[in-house]
Structure formats: C-alpha cells, structure tokens
Amino acid sequence: MSDLVRITPRDLAAVALRPLKAGETVSYGDGEVTLKDDLPMGHKAALRDIRKGEAVIKYGFPIGEAAEDIPEGAHIHTHNLHTLLSGEKEYTWNPIHPEAVKLKPAVFRGYPREKSRPGIRNELWILPTVGCVNDVAKALAARAQNLTGGSVEGVYAFPHPYGCSQLGDDQDNTRQVLADLATHPNAGGVLVLGLGCENSGIEQIRPRMGDYDESRVRFLVCQEAEDELAEGMRMLEELAERMRRDRREDCSADQLVIGLKCGGSDGLSGITANPAIGVFSDLLTGMGGTTILTEVPEMFGAETLLMDRCESEELFRKTVRLINDFKAYFESYHMPVYENPSPGNKAGGITTLEDKALGCTQKSGSSPVRGVLAYAEKVTEPGLNLLSAPGNDLVASTALAASGAQMVLFSTGRGTPFGCPAPTMKIASNTPLARRKSSWIDFDAGRLLEGMTLEELGAELLAKVLETASGAPTRNEENGFHDLAIFKQGVTL
Fold this sequence. Notes:
- There is one protein chain.
- This protein is an alpha/beta fold.
- It folds into three domains: 4-82, Roll (Archaeosine Trna-guanine Transglycosylase, Chain: A, domain 4); 112-247, Ribose 5-phosphate Isomerase B, Chain: A; 252-478.
- It has helices spanning 134-143, 168-182, 202-205, 228-243, 273-286, 303-307, 313-332, 343-347, 353-360, 393-402, 431-436, 454-469, 475-478; strands spanning 4-5, 13-16, 25-28, 31-34, 44-46, 55-58, 61-66, 75-76, 81-82, 107-110, 123-128, 155-157, 187-194, 217-221, 249-252, 257-262, 290-293, 369-373, 383-387, 407-412, 424-428, 443-444.
- Strand 13 (187-194), helix 3 and strand 14 form a beta-alpha-beta unit.
- The termini are far apart.
- The relative contact order is 0.14.
- The mean pLDDT is 95.
C-alpha cells in the first residue's frame, strides 16, 4: 500500500496514510516524493514545486493558494496555504444530470405509522416548549423509566434554553422544530410540555404539527395543572399503554430518511468515511429512499459541484440562495465566511474551508439533487436533499431529525460521543480511532486503506443501517446520550 494517497491525477498535494518523517522517500500511486518535513497522518505534502499565488489542487479542485513558494515534498498546511473564499457570488448552472440508479428496495423491521413514515424506534419523548420547564421534563423522564420495556423502547426528555424572549424568524424556527419533533416517526408517544406564559407555547406549536396521530400526543400546560408531575405521569402512562400495541413489521427501505453529517473531521474523512457514505447514499436513493446533506458553511468551496447536479433550474436557484443566504448571515454579524475549519480539523490535516468542503460533500455521492430545504422544513422529495443548517454538530444533527431523518450518519476523524434525537451512527475515518474509541464508534471506514473497496464498504454500511433501523442500538444509544440543540439566529429579549 502507498504511504501517500493522491486522490485525483490533477492533484498537487497528496495525503499521508501514516505518520511520515522528513527525509523519507514515499510512494503515491505511480510516483514517489522525498519529504522535506515531518508529516502527521492525514496531512498533505507537495508533489512538485508550487509557486506563491498558485492554486493548490486536491480532490481535483483548488483548496486555496500558496502563501509562499512551496518546494516539492514540503508540508502544505496553514503556514503556507490560505483560502480563496470571499462573500456572496454569482453562479451559473452547468447541469450534468447524473443518472439516478434504480435498485430494488431492501427491507428493514420498523414501526408502521398512520400519519408518517415508519419509525425505526418506538420511544416516548417529552418536549418542553420553553426552557423554564426543562427540570419538570427531566423529572418526568426519570419517574417514567419504569414505563420502558416491550414496545416502549425508551423515555427521553429533550431540554433546551429557548421558547421565549425570541423574535421573528428566530422564534418561528423554535416553534417549527418543536412541532417537527412532536410528529417524528421515531416517537411512538410525545408529551408536549408547556409553561403557559411563553411566546412559543402549546397554542403556537399545535397548529404547526399538521395532520398528526392524536392518539400519540398529549399536551400539558404546567401553570394550569395543580400538580404537573402527577398529571404528566398520567399522560405518559396513557401514551405508553398505546405504544405497547406497536410491533415491528417489514418495511421498505424507500421509506427511510437518513441524515448525512460530519464533524471532528481529519485529512482522511474525505478519502474514507465520507466517500463510503456517498456510496451508501447512492444505494439508498437508488432504492427510492431519501438522504439529507446539511451543514451549509461546509459546502463553501464545493457548492458548484452540488449546484451542477440539481435536477432542475429551480433547484439550482434554491441552492444558490441556500449558499448566499448563509454567507449573508455571517456577514450580517461582521464575521468572515471562511472562519473554519476548527482547531481539531486543522490538527487532523484539514487546512482551508475549501479543503473541508470538498471532503464534506463526498457524503452526497453522485446522485442528482432532488430537493432543497429551509431550516426546520420537513423533507417530501425522495432522493438526495440539501438542508439549510449550520456546521455545528448537534445543531445540524437536530435539524436533520427535525426534517424527518430517522437516523443520522456522522463521519468523524477525531471522535465524538453525542447523540441527537435520532440514532446517530458514528463512522470513523481511520482504524486507530475506531479501535481507541470503540465505545463511541459504530463503523470503521478506515478499512478502505487496508484493502476493502469503496463499493464493499458502502454496501456494508447499507447493511449496518438496515440492521440499526431494525432495532440494533447505536453507540450513543447504548451510552444513553440523547440531546437537542435549536439554531439560535436572533436577539434574546
């Protein structure tokens, strides 16, 4: 196996597959280079002399320009490479119309729902409408643990600090996310818990829930109850009794919605884990299923690759707005659009936002873009969708769940333990991480570097997803990690 990987023949940089030392002569495909610097795993080396101001190519596209002359074999990173990104841009649609693969849908064992797609879990959720009742929600969840068992697979509270003292779109987003989660297919029963004087109370949430199954939702206003804990327990017991009639049945994979997210990425994420997720995405959408790609700021620098795959000009225009609106959001707070990657990303070998974005978008595979969603908008179109949400791991993963994802695939090169409201499957970009943090990691994509093909890895990931959708727990579920984070966009009164 080569010591460096050159992703495309155009690339001027190659990525280290193991820690390398200055003076080593190492191979990359058909070539070799003598290193001038030590090179940590995941970091880049120049394959020829690169002049100051010249674009550095990786993934076949520029990831920035050389800030100084970079000699062959030198380490390329933050000290000698800087971004080419700026603010809003004019875009031209150059459609490539990738052919969508048609496959026979696989089967998983899920919970049929009358008003939504099947659930892959049958959980009892407690959703506070405002942070003032968070402790009540947590107390109810603790008391209700005796309700678990059989078809009631868990009782969880989802505290958050919002629901009051918000204005405009910021408040509307909180209301819509809570309404979306109150009708999530993984929730066999939901207690919507309000205070009674908040801006985003039950009377604001309920109309946004659409046509929901009333047998699975209860509403409690704490200020109107003599004993909110006793009344809440009564409602949870009613919901649990309803849920005990639920049974897993064979369901078609075309009913699956899977969110795609990465975080704590390293230089191997765009080579192993994200391409494996891309193969999975093409397989699932080929069966008529749905995938959702988010974290818009981490599309900057690779957005045209997604735009050109839009199925229509209307979708192209929506994608342009998706990108430029997020850039305008940064600029409205006088923040640079390129203030990314994170310190952990840089330590793992990712240098610029273009570098990160070109790796991030590998998760989308090669299928056409069939939908573009606003934040908190539920998915309706099968196939690959793009969702407006920030790069923050928990905020973006919560947004995926709110848009209807029954599960989130989360690739990582550094490791992270969290879980969003939906099962959050962690996919390691490298085998050392998968071995060291086996209590966090569900799937080792680093095996691509040990002889597996990308097609084999993607097919194995599909099988893992179907197994998980049929009830096998993810590591975050085994650890009891379930959290919710709503995107805060405005002032607090």
